Task: structure prediction
Amino acid sequence: MRFSVWAPSARRVRVSVDAGVHEMTAGEGGWWHAEAEGINYAFLLDDSRDRLPDPRSRWQPHGVHQESRVYDHAEFEWTDDAWHGRQLPGGVVYELHVGTFTEGGTFDAAIDRLDHLVELGITHVELLPVNSFDGTAGWGYDGVLWGAVHQPYGGPDGFKRFVDAAHARGLAVVLDVVYNHLGPSGAYLDRFGPYFAGQNDWGPGLNLDGAGSDEVRRYVVDNALSWFRDFHVDALRLDAVHALLDRRAVHLLEQLAVETEALSSALNRPLTLIAESDLNDPKLVTPRERGGYGLHAQWSDDFHHVLHVKLTGETSGYYTDFAAQDALERVLREVFFHAGTWSSFRERTHGRPVDTRTVPGHRFLAYLQNHDQIGNRATGDRLSATVSPGRLACGAALLFCSPFTPMVFMGEEWAASTPWQFFASFPDPELAEAVRTGRRREFARHGWGEADVPDPMDPATVERSRLDWAEADAPGHREVLELYRTLIRLRREHPELAAPWVADLRVDTAPDGSWLVLHRGALRLAVNFGAGPVTLPLGATATLLSWGEAAVDSGAAELPPDSFVLVETR
Result:
């Protein structure tokens, strides 16, 4: 068996395989190689006695600080030969965290809930990061060995079983991956070579454009392609790509798009790249032939922010600008609220306009809630904790009747009462205390008392964040679940609702923003956010869906506060 590792500055490299230690031979480009037999292995650099896991490890059965284990992708018996993929346009995405999606917190336990997603009408199931991180419980964004699947979830075979089962049900799998930083515990990459270059808000950033960066970029791209090829994943959600500092003529994201397209052709199924970006720059999703990076989609925080303000009335921090009376209309018409305009939170102009005549709306994922916007609140409270069912329903109607790709966060579809809080489980006491105190200090600056902020290291925080599936059929929850099912079904049955061309959208609003009518072909969605009733002449010929005692009489809609109606005008 051949063992290889990139260590360009090392004078000597050995590999420990089971009970033996073997000298490695220097090859081209800083790579070292050795032939040995065994399954558990680690590398020793120069004269150090530290046994380091493989940076390209495929399996870490005993954690990120321990030796790696040989894993052969060819040994898994896939049953998805008939799966030919699923494109993102027209889809509905469901974001979940494996550890808190079910009581068991494993891939196999999650498989048992996939039929729920099918019945809901979901097409793409997105998993928060599943790569190895230190500890047992965490969000996954502190991963340090990107190619090894977190063992407490079920390891590499468990993830493959999940993907295989999802494909059997017609569900595409989206995987959240983090290439902008590494976690604070177990990040040994800098011991091997010039992987790091500076820091960002979350940890050490990668060297993408300096000396030795060719292999670092290869490290990233090879990892991404492996998820597609070896784990049969259908799409990757790229975390915080604005933190990928790259001054090369060909940005890492463009390189990744090029190689993903080539692999898609070879596999004969669609492979999708979805960015999370704070830049409000449509260049990410603009095709390469028009000067863009060629990614397929990106998250739209502006859609979230404007609806969060509309539903909750919160206007602090980055929500301040979204309190403008025309904010919701602008986002629906133009995608970005900040599009070369002043951002008071940033104290500068921000963003660039989207050419809605040429860039389809399906390239922007829209959502009322996601892991960030819930979990990074002090108490991890969902919208359902503070917003009435009627306002939640109005938000959901706008989400599924918009020209964007809708995304749902786990439990949102039944207005789950369980919070989703920030948690971790670093074994190192000093690191654990640093995370604990840092979290409390962060929210203390916003007026929260220490006792109000959950201890991220307390196992009870994880338990509070776990979904209670019994709620889904309970009064006050099952009605919301049926609403979500109906909205998704209507979006599928009426092509107008999924039509992606934002430039064709017509939006009528009250001068004070209290009501809104969204025109989608021959369909009209009328929503009343105001404190009093409103009558709107819609010319309706049939009612498809209503909420909150909204009624249609002689073509006009009578809307009480916090209600909506979806009608046809054919």
Observations:
- The longest strand covers residues 40-45.
- The mean pLDDT is 96.
- DSSP finds 15 helices and 29 strands in the chain.
